[in-house]
Task: structure prediction
Amino acid sequence: MSFANLSRLAQERPLRMLLVNAGEADALTWAGLVQPLRGAAAILGPDLLQLDVRTPAEALLGQPGWHLALLVADETQAAPPPELCRAVIERCRSAQFWGGVGAAVLWLADAGVMGGVRVALPWALYADTEEISDRAILTPHLFEIDGRHLSCCGGAASIDFALTLVECLFGATVQASIKEALCVERVRGHEERQRVALQARFGALQPKLSEAVTLMEANIEEPLSTDDIANLVGLSRRQLERLFKQYLGSLPSRYYLELRLQRARQLLLDTNNSIVQVGLMCGFSSGSHFSTAFGALFGNTPREERQRKLMPPTA
Result:
């Protein structure tokens, strides 16, 4: 996932953002998204950011012209009437970047507008995805940015998503001010996984896949080979690779590498272990290999990651 395309919106003055709340005003998914963005709007002022908050019916009023539009709903929220839902989705799609948060991600996929797009769906809604498997690529991540499409699983992840948008569009200083105001210590990255997403989606239908991922998660420090994992779950290497490609869009080796690197990033952020120790704890016997692989996935080296997090925010 790359923020390069989205970051170009930082040049827009003012940046116009539409949030359509199709759920309850006090739902965690909505509150977690709107509070950081309202904080950014208060800090930046209307000359830099105009935040437009509307109901689905209100979203159809006036002329479009937003740079970023998101349809938001808690995972328990039923979709609006079909005609209204389609009209709101089309209004959101008129923005340069658009997408959904929470249950709205499923509504977008049901509408057929997320074909071939990686989306982050609330794990509790995975049981409702049988008919959309050919319309979107479901991932277990907290949020995704794929081209012009944005999605977030909602719940507490909405806060991480909103704060990531703030940093991408307005910089780390603005993000740091909002984190302090909301008492947020750490912003989780998009690549972190919903804890029960894989089991919820594959536990019954693809137990071998779920078992393979569990083995990977339990063997971070001393990684298993793909052949070892295949043997342990009772599959051939080719069968295992086919499962990963079909359901996770990746080869087992690549998925395992990213899993280890995600763990390494978490350790760099949350512990005082040295960079060498972190590499060893995540199965990298070579410091250069660890640094190269980390940079390829995250765009900076382990040392830069730690230095960035240790650096106090500028005034």
